[in-house]
TrEMBL record:
Lineage: Bacteria, Bacillati, Actinomycetota, Actinomycetes, Kitasatosporales
KW Transmembrane helix (keyword) present: no
Catalytic activities: thiosulfate + hydrogen cyanide = thiocyanate + sulfite + 2 H(+)
Entry-linked InterPro entries: Rhodanese-like_dom (IPR001763), Rhodanese-like_dom_sf (IPR036873), Thiosulfate_sulfurtransferase (IPR051126), Thiosulphate_STrfase_CS (IPR001307)
Organism: Streptomyces dioscori
EC number: 2.8.1.1
Pfam families assigned to the protein according to its UniProt record, in alphabetical order: Rhodanese
Domain Rhodanese stretches: 34-141, 174-275
Keywords of the record: Repeat, Transferase
GO molecular function, one term: thiosulfate-cyanide sulfurtransferase activity
Protein name: thiosulfate sulfurtransferase
């Protein structure tokens, strides 16, 4: 595969098939966050998966211990994540391909966590497992045994925002809210709804078309008002959908910061300001404090 680059964030099914046939140093991870599939979320994986793919349960493998102020999706402990990476066979020089059977945001979260942890070359399978099957890629039922990778986790390899950072960035730069429009708008009659004052709405789902990342021209148009050279940050409800914003901007060569705690952490402190309505609104001075 080509050298790691911020622009190389996805891989097509045909490209992955070629790499696997060549026996290249690639680790494939299927990230599961399925619902409605019975008591065992691994059942879809067990029925057939990309050959050699390891199953990664979203929670707890990509989520750390929750506290009253952490938000819904805190970062995993570095020691726990390193142990898992090694069990998946990841070395410092590995290429890792992540995918899911459902929403691409789950794969984007895995992409972001691994990049944050210092894995340099991580790709999302564009279109997920559906694209692999549409291409005619084979499926396997054999579960790979735990491996002995040598990856060393280096937390902080991608930028993160604290609550204070996010509030300040809404004033000094661009803070993007990746939730659905109705969540962003909120309800003025209900406390704790709405958005961080000064944040702009760009739903994470808009980054994709048919489950695949939009092309560069479409993404530049989508983020045109935020590409003026100032710092860009993103948040959502619990630190998942916003990773699609980081992924999309990375494909354009723009490094955006993630607020992992997102809205669920922001609203854990009732003194933090909130705004309702379809516009950024708010008191920038209050948002920056």
């Amino acid at each position: 595969m080509c050298p790691a680059s911020v622009r190389n964030v996805v891989i097509s099914a045909s490209e992955l098939d070629a790499v696997l046939r060549e026996g290249g140093p690639v680790t494939v991870l299927e990230v599961g966050r399925e619902t409605g599939d019975g008591p065992d979320p691994r059942l879809p994986y067990a029925s057939g998966h990309i050959p050699g793919a390891h199953y990664v349960p979203f929670d707890p493998d990509l989520v750390g211990p929750r506290t009253g102020t952490s938000g819904a999706g805190p970062l995993p402990r570095a020691s726990d994540l390193q142990e898992r990476l090694r069990a998946w066979g990841v070395d410092d020089g590995s290429t890792v391909v992540v995918h899911t059977r459902q929403t691409p945001a789950v794969a984007a979260r895995a992409w972001w966590i691994l990049r944050w942890a210092g894995v340099r070359d991580v790709r999302c399978l564009d279109g997920g497992l559906a694209a692999w099957q549409a291409f005619g890629g084979p499926l396997d039922t054999a579960v790979p045994p735990p491996a002995r990778g040598t990856a060393v986790v280096r937390p902080g390899s991608l930028p993160v925002l604290t609550a204070e950072d996010a509030g300040g960035l809404a004033v000094s730069g661009h803070l993007v809210d990746a939730r659905a429009p109705e969540a962003y708008t909120g309800d003025p009659r209900r406390a704790g709804t709405g958005h961080i004052p000064g944040a702009h709405s760009v739903p994470g789902s808009d980054n994709f078309s048919g489950g695949e990342l939009r092309d560069a021209t479409e993404l530049r148009a989508l983020y045109a008002s935020h590409l003026d050279g100032r710092v860009v940050g993103a948040y959502c409800g619990g630190g998942v959908s916003a990773t699609t914003t980081v992924l999309a901007l990375a494909s354009l060569g723009v490094e955006a910061a993630l607020y992992p705690g997102s809205w669920s952490a922001w609203t854990s402190d009732p003194t933090r300001p909130t705004e309702t309505g379809s516009g950024p609104g708010g008191d920038p001075t209050a948002a920056a404090r």
